């Protein structure tokens, strides 16, 4: 399939620049995959569409302050986005301007410095922070807010889910930003099980698909882990013909990666570079909560595999006509 088949026109003013307050006051477009019927709701009303016995699966990864702003010894401005810790004080990073940052350069950030050790794949660099601890490095950083959000949020916690725990993501699993603690309590009170998995979102989430054919695109690896308790709950629900509702494409990729490898969901951890696009046989996920995604993105391809490309693009056209808010801080879809 061609990447151009997943394109659509979005007015720039519909790109959300700040989150809804409260979180669950955002809008919710409910899409019935069988009938194609669309329903316009508020996110807090998602409770009405969930049944006792359903299992809602959330990605609890927490975003790290991975963006460092500083300068070279010569005074030129430089930016580094930390991707992966490779040793004590050693990080793989994307550095800008990349063409001017070479091994041996010393970079000075707020309160900390590092040496450029070597080039690595995908235009990355290995940075040596001279044995500095993770906490020391993070104290000098900012959250790597997506480039389409023009101002850094007044409250950085608004770019974290209320249930975020293990640190490791470069970007937030944004479908979860709509949930409040009280909404999660309401779900539990209704008999809906809530389970957490972890997938640390990598820098690849910001990277466009550059190949003309989607089959030629390669995904970057991302670390995931699933506990034995979560796996047991999910497998029992599947055996009992109860629904698995994945919150976010990261949750989908984690569950489907493990199922593709083991035949069911098991306690597992490792790297996944699974790329889900049409056609795809989903083995675990029955319904999906997700935001509105960028044109030609791998995330739009995943939701198109789940609900059908024509239905998704039609739903997006309807959302645009009704002035829904798009992308990370935007509104949500529930694909039933």
Quick recap of the structure?
This protein has 336 residues and is α/β, with parallel strands linked by helices.
Number of helices: 6
Main β-sheet, spatial strand arrangement: 2-1-17-16-14-3-12-13-15
**Global outline:** globular
User: Mean of residue pLDDT?
Assistant: 95
Walk me through the topology:
Elements: E1 27-31, E2 38-42, E3 55-59, E4 62-63, E5 67-72, E6 77-87, E7 90-96, E8 106-109, E9 112-119, E10 124-128, H1 134-139, E11 167-169, H2 181-189, E12 193-199, E13 222-226, H3 228-239, E14 244-247, H4 249-262, E15 268-272, E16 287-291, H5 298-307, H6 309-321, E17 332-335
Parallel strand pairs: 1-17, 3-12, 3-14, 4-11, 14-16
Antiparallel strand pairs: 1-2, 5-6, 5-8, 6-7, 7-10, 8-9, 9-10, 12-13, 13-15, 16-17
Structure overview:
The protein is of the alpha/beta class and 336 residues long. It is built from 6 helices and 17 strands. The strands form 3 sheets. The protein has a 9-stranded mixed β-sheet with strand order 2-1-17-16-14-3-12-13-15. β9 and β10 form a beta hairpin. The radius of gyration is 20 Å and the shape is globular. The mean pLDDT is 95.
């Amino acid at each position: 399939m061609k990447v151009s088949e997943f394109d659509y026109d979005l007015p720039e003013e519909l790109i959300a620049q700040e989150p809804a307050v409260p979180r669950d006051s955002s809008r919710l477009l409910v899409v019935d995959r069988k009938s194609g019927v669309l329903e316009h709701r508020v996110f807090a009303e998602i409770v009405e569409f969930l049944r006792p016995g359903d299992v809602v699966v959330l990605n609890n990864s927490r975003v790290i302050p991975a963006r460092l702003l500083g300068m070279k010894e010569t005074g030129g401005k430089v930016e580094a986005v930390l991707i992966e810790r490779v040793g004590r004080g050693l990080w793989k990073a994307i550095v800008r301007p990349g063409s001017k940052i070479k091994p041996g350069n010393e970079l000075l950030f707020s309160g900390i410095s590092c040496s450029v050790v070597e080039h690595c794949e995908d235009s990355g660099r290995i940075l040596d922070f001279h044995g500095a601890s993770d906490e020391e490095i993070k104290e000098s950083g900012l959250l790597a807010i997506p480039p389409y959000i023009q101002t850094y949020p007044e409250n950085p916690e608004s770019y974290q889910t209320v249930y975020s725990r293990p640190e490791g993501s470069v970007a937030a699993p944004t479908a979860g930003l709509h949930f409040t603690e009280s909404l999660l309590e309401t779900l539990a009170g209704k008999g809906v099980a809530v389970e957490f998995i972890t997938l640390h979102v990598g820098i690849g989430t910001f990277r466009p698909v550059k190949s003309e054919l989607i089959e030629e695109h390669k995904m970057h690896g991302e670390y995931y882990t699933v506990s034995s308790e979560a796996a047991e709950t999910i497998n029992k629900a599947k055996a009992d013909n109860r629904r698995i509702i994945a919150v976010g494409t990261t949750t989908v990729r984690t569950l489907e990666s493990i199922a593709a490898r083991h035949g069911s969901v098991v306690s597992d951890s490792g790297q996944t570079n699974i790329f889900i696009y049409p056609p795809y046989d989903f083995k675990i996920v029955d319904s999906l909560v997700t935001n509105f995604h960028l044109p030609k993105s791998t995330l739009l391809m995943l939701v198109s595999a789940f609900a059908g490309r024509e239905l998704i693009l039609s739903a997006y056209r309807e959302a645009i006509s009704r002035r829904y808010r798009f992308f990370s801080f935007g509104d949500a879809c529930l694909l039933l």
